[in-house]
Specification:
Layout lengths: L4 E7 L2 E6 L2 E5 L33 E3 L10 H10 L4 E5 L3 H7 L7 E4 L4 E5 L2 E7 L16 E7 L4 E5 L9 H8 L5 E7 L5 H5 L8 H10 L4 E5 L15 H5 L13 E3 L1
Parallel strand pairs: 3-4, 4-5, 5-6, 10-11, 11-12
Antiparallel strand pairs: 1-2, 1-13, 2-3, 7-8, 8-9, 9-10
């Protein structure tokens, strides 16, 4: 029997996914921890905290890279405390933050490598794909510092792509498509806040813009585009408002999610 797959945008690049008895978090930022950082960017939240992390019951927690709005200790800690069986996946570059914030719980984190697959549950696969934030940066062992995740639900024939932070790069669409089963309906959660010299001057690494996200989604044959990484920090938003109508003019079905509101795929 197939499960209905439901998705909830948590703000920024954070998502809560539910499919039957399986619950998964991707890059949740459910605190105000960034406001405590020394930064030239105003990190006042523009999106409310729509879920209390202490109340979440989840099986898997995906972290695409070590930046604070993706690797958020104030979200990770209560989820870890209340979900002893939860598995946490992240790139090896998160080691320093793990050691700083979770020195007694380093074994809870499983490091992922690009091109590898992990079976999360029967018929549920996790694939890791390189991400370029804004470059395809690797560590001393050649491991990518930022990644994207593709989750395949084989029984439902549904795939979900959580980009994290990335700009387009040559071969990105091919790397994604190699991990998507034939005939699967692909939903892509892609950042659309873009990049510019003003943010570069502040040391803020950027992402693809909405047109680049549309192009990637179309090149991958996606059924659905979900724009994200917007409406959180005012200084890191696109200059033009992103709308579903604009995206759909290019022929790609789009849901511009509302924080905290669940929808079925």
């Amino acid at each position: 029997m197939k499960n209905e797959i439901k998705l909830c945008w948590l703000g920024q690049s954070g998502f809560l996914l539910g499919a039957g008895d399986t619950a998964l978090l991707a890059d949740p930022y459910l605190s105000d921890s960034c406001a405590k950082l020394a930064s030239k960017l105003d990190h006042t939240r523009g999106t409310p905290i729509v879920r209390d992390p202490a109340d979440l019951k989840v099986d898997f927690y995906l972290i695409t890279h070590c930046h604070a709005d993706h690797f958020d200790p104030e979200t990770i800690a209560p989820v870890m405390e209340n979900n002893p069986g939860c598995r946490f996946f992240c790139p090896r570059d998160c080691r320093e933050k793990i050691g700083k914030f979770f020195p007694e719980k380093t074994a809870k984190f499983e490091f992922v490598s690009a091109g590898k697959m992990v079976e999360l549950a029967p018929g549920v696969e996790l694939h890791t794909i390189p991400a370029a934030h804004e470059t395809l940066e690797t560590d001393e062992n050649g491991e990518y510092k930022a990644v994207s995740f593709l989750v395949n639900f084989r029984k439902e024939n549904v795939s979900l792509f959580f980009a994290g932070d990335t700009i387009p790069y040559p071969g990105q669409d091919a790397a994604i498509l190699r991990a998507v089963p034939a005939g699967a309906e692909l939903t892509m959660c892609l950042p659309v806040n873009g990049r510019d010299e003003a943010r570069h001057a502040l040391g803020i690494a950027g992402n693809m813009d909405v047109d680049e996200a549309i192009t990637l989604a179309k090149n991958c044959g996606a059924k659905l585009l979900i724009p994200c990484h917007i409406k959180m920090f005012a200084g890191n938003d696109p200059k033009e408002e992103v709308t579903a109508a604009y995206c759909e003019k290019s022929g790609i079905k789009t849901i511009l999610p509302e924080a905290g509101k669940e929808f079925a795929l």
